[in-house]
Specification:
The complex is a heterodimer of chains A (about 575) and B (about 220).
Chain A: H1 12-17, H2 22-52, H3 59-64, H4 76-111, H5 120-139, H6 171-200, H7 213-244, E1 256-257, E2 260-261, H8 270-304, H9 311-324, H10 340-352, H11 354-368, H12 377-399, H13 402-408, H14 412-442, H15 448-474, H16 494-524
Antiparallel strand pairs in A: 1-2
Helix pairs in contact in A: 2-4, 2-5, 2-16, 4-5, 4-6, 4-7, 4-8, 4-14, 5-6, 6-7, 7-8, 7-9, 8-11, 8-12, 8-14, 9-11, 12-14, 12-15, 14-15, 15-16
Chain B: H1 47-77, H2 89-109, H3 114-144, H4 153-184, H5 190-216
Helix pairs in contact in B: 1-4, 1-5, 2-3, 2-5, 3-4, 4-5
């Protein structure tokens, strides 16, 4: 099965569909994420539209969703269904697939000097299970009752009771759970492959401490995935059994639904679901953001023409964030009646994550400091990542205190926080990666002017969307509500909502600049050289795009660390990792 | 599945490419897979099967950790928990599984003595299959006695834990069967046998853990 050396396939199906080449699989993941992100954005348009103009008739919506939007007017339940699907698609199908499955698959083997992943067939299987998971999730739009309305966290008992609890909670919720179970299996297989590849397939000379920080970030992310997705899978199995087999893991007794007493369930614990879900859910946040940190470190160093500041500290900080990520899930549950003693422990541990996060931030700033900075598109997005990571992270300081969280928890403050730090920052990491590696992947350059326009509209746009949401939260604007017109105290912030919606529409429109640039550059972009950014790591010593077996018949040999820029006494201002007979300056 | 798919121990003739240009200046042999001298490209290291299996076991551990913590929490909170009387068949099954760990170890130790290897190895596969059949009978007995998955949280967890274990064990039995086929066609490698044994012992240990949980905390 998993043969180490595979010949380049010649037929279309084996070359592009059921390929075992990590590069093709990486692109498959990226395309899946690209389709998913546009669906997710479309849903956010509907969400923002309804918040500002509730009750408006949209005939196209009426014909697409006769049940969810009868006569073209969105129902509150339909709004919740859009919310659920927006969250699920973005978190799983975009933020988890693109940075890890996409770029990780494509560049991890190349950056450590390997020909492919450790188990190429398993790699293909991972992608196709992910694809199946995506199709299963999307199919929830087309079944009776539509998609579930229980949110991306699927809190029990709402998610556990079935159709009786609301539209979309029948078959739609079943499909949702099935989709996530499949996704968990695919992620576990993927993680196993990433870990083995990093540990066992490094080229001669590629010691652990010579690995690019991108590789470290994919490695730590894989460890998180390996330890987190099993728990989500367990939770999903139990939830499905509650729904289909009549068990009571999460369903308490004495529930009354639509004036009917639920009699066939008793004794279950809804909080048990929350514990299991968030034990997975918090590491998941880091699964989304860590690869972005890796790309940012890489790009900042290349475009500042300086070694990364504090390489080892960066590695240890990533491990610190990863390990602590497993100990803080309770901070999602301050409002659930958690014991105050546990809450204090979770709060302190959460606050402590600020330490490795600050180490990373200061080292990023230290890397740029005094550098000969080149402001190309990848660099702009990497700097944008740092900015968003800081502004999103500062919001976290208010939410990790139980006392302030009690007020802010169910408001837009939380929406602002997690979108900035998990959503948008991670997306900026993906953009930085795309602009940075596009020349290597497709052999052509992306248009630099369009890239800059895309960056500035997006950067200003996301700040215009999510910064004001902090204020909405502070005045007590609740989240998850389809309509806010019934609350007189929110009358004065309605204009702010309008501002946010307009900003969102403009920002989303700007993403078509990216799409156009992407597609145009694919065919008409300037031919890319082997190493257009004067970078040091192994992907830049092979042709663009790389051949099927990456390095040809002979394994590369590594002589230097990944960040040898502006080395004193050298002619060029960088040393390739494969440059022999050159002095390395120890940092 | 790493366990099922070891490459043949290669005394490789050089794969595609031969001795053509070396961009990096040095002939490279990673010393894996027994290739000698300046063979231009070694096969992937077989260590990857062990690493991959260890990672897989970590993932499986977390799955059962999830179930176990749910078990502990649900039992601790409940007022409706009725302890489950384990059918006696469970003990016979447990003995079979324990015995199969011994037999696979014997197989490993007699790897070079083909008739012994064949005997111990196929005995392991048979015991594994016997365990699955035995588990099936346990479930049938319980169902016959009116103990369903929804009867009580204790029975819910009994079915969840034993079925989840059986699914993983069934994967192991299929792998054992496949490797038995390879053994008979003379293509079973020590690495494949070692990785298989690792998985198999883990499944035995996992079963002991589940059994202890059900007995001591039932």
């Amino acid at each position: 099965m998993s043969h180490a050396v595979h010949e380049p396939p010649s037929s279309f199906i084996w070359k592009y569909i059921f390929s075992v080449d990590h590069k093709v699989i990486g692109i498959q993941y990226l395309l899946l994420a690209l389709v998913a992100v546009f669906i997710g954005m479309l849903l956010s348009i509907l969400i923002r539209f309804n918040l500002v103009w509730p009750g408006t008739e949209l005939s196209i919506l009426g014909s697409l969703f006769p049940v969810g939007a009868p006569g073209g007017v969105m129902t509150a339940e339909f709004y919740l269904a859009m919310l659920t699907m927006h969250g699920t698609i973005m978190v799983f199908m975009v933020l988890t697939t693109a940075p890890q499955g996409g770029f990780g698959n494509y560049f991890l083997p190349i950056q450590i000097g390997a020909r492919d992943m450790a188990f190429p067939n398993l790699n293909m299987l991972s992608f196709w299970i992910t694809f199946l998971s995506f199709v299963t999730l999307i199919s929830a739009f087309f079944v009776t009752g539509g998609p579930p309305i229980s949110g991306w966290t699927a809190y029990a008992p709402l998610s556990a009771l079935g159709e009786i609890a609301g539209p979309g909670l029948g078959l739609g919720q079943d499909l949702w759970i099935l989709s996530l179970a499949l996704f968990s299996v695919a992620s576990l297989l993927g993680a196993l492959n990433f870990i083995t590849t990093t540990l066992d397939l490094r080229a001669p000379g590629m010691t652990l401490m010579r690995m690019p920080l991108t590789v470290w970030s994919w490695f730590v992310t894989a460890i998180l995935g390996l330890l987190a997705f099993g728990v989500l899978l367990a939770a999903g199995v139990l939830l499905l059994l509650d729904r289909l087999a009549g068990t009571s893991f999460f369903i308490p007794g004495g529930l009354v639904l639509n004036d009917q007493l639920v009699i066939d369930h008793k004794g279950g614990s809804p909080l048990l679901w929350q514990h299991l879900f968030w034990f997975f859910g918090h590491p998941e946040v880091y699964i989304a953001i860590l690869p972005g940190m890796g790309v940012t470190s890489q790009v900042l160093s290349v475009f500042s023409r300086k070694p990364i500041f504090g390489y080892k500290a960066m590695v240890y900080a990533m491990f610190g964030i990863g390990i602590m990520g497993f100990m803080v899930w309770g901070h999602h549950m301050f409002m659930s009646g958690l014991s105050p003693y546990s809450a204090i422990a979770f709060s302190l541990l959460t606050t402590a994550i600020a330490v490795p996060s600050a180490i990373k931030t200061f080292n990023w700033l230290g890397t740029i400091w005094g550098g000969r900075v080149r402001f190309d598109s990848p660099m702009l997005f990497a700097i944008g990542f740092v900015s968003l990571f800081v502004s999103g992270g500062l919001g976290g300081l208010f939410l990790n205190q139980p006392a302030t969280d009690i007020f802010l928890h169910d408001t837009y403050f939380v929406v602002a926080h997690f979108h900035l730090i998990m959503g948008v920052a991670a997306i900026f990491g993906i953009f930085a990666g795309t602009y940075f590696w596009f020349p290597k992947m497709f052999g052509r350059m992306m248009n630099e002017g369009l890239g800059k326009v895309h960056f500035w509209i997006t950067f200003v746009g996301v700040n215009a969307i999510f910064m004001p949401m902090h204020f909405l939260g502070m005045v007590g604007n609740p989240r998850r509500y389809a309509e806010l017109t019934a609350y007189s105290f929110l009358g004065e912030v309605q204009s702010l909502h309008l501002f946010i919606t307009i900003a969102a529409f403009i920002t989303i429109a700007a993403q078509f600049i990216f799409l156009a640039n992407f597609i145009h550059s694919l065919f008409k972009g300037k031919k890319a050289a082997e190493n257009p950014w004067d970078a040091t790591t192994l992907e830049w010593v092979i042709p663009s795009p790389p051949p099927h077996d990456n390095f040809g018949p002979v394994d590369p040999v590594v002589y230097h660390g990944a960040y040898e820029y502006s080395v004193p006494g050298e002619e060029a201002d960088f040393l390739l990792q494969t440059d022999k007979d050159k002095e390395t300056v120890e940092h | 599945m790493a366990a099922i798919a070891p490459p043949r121990p290669t005394d490789h003739g050089a794969p595609a490419g031969g001795d053509s240009g070396n961009r990096t200046g040095l002939p490279v042999d990673r010393g894996y897979g027994g290739g000698g001298g300046s063979s231009p490209r070694a096969d992937l290291p077989e260590q990857r099967y062990y690493t991959g299996m260890m990672a897989a076991l970590a993932g499986i551990t977390m799955l059962f950790t999830g179930f176990t913590s749910a078990y502990v929490v649900r039992k601790g909170l409940s007022t409706d928990w009725v302890p489950l009387q384990l059918p006696s068949m469970v003990w016979i099954n447990s003995l079979m599984l324990l015995a199969s760990s011994v037999t696979i170890e014997q197989a490993k130790r007699h790897f070079s003595v083909i008739p012994l290897l064949k005997r111990w190895w196929s005995l392991t596969a048979l015991l594994g299959f016997g365990f699955l059949v035995g588990q099936w009978m346990v479930w049938q007995q319980l169902i016959g006695a009116g103990v369903f998955i929804s009867s009580n949280p204790s029975s819910s967890f009994f079915y969840v834990l034993t079925v989840a274990h059986a699914v993983h064990l069934a994967g192991g039995v299929i792998a054992l069967g496949y490797l038995t086929f390879r053994l008979w066609t003379g293509r079973l490698t020590p690495v494949a046998a070692g990785v298989m044994a690792l998985y198999w012992h883990f499944m035995g240990g996992l079963w002991l853990f589940i059994l202890l949980l059900l007995v001591l905390w039932g």
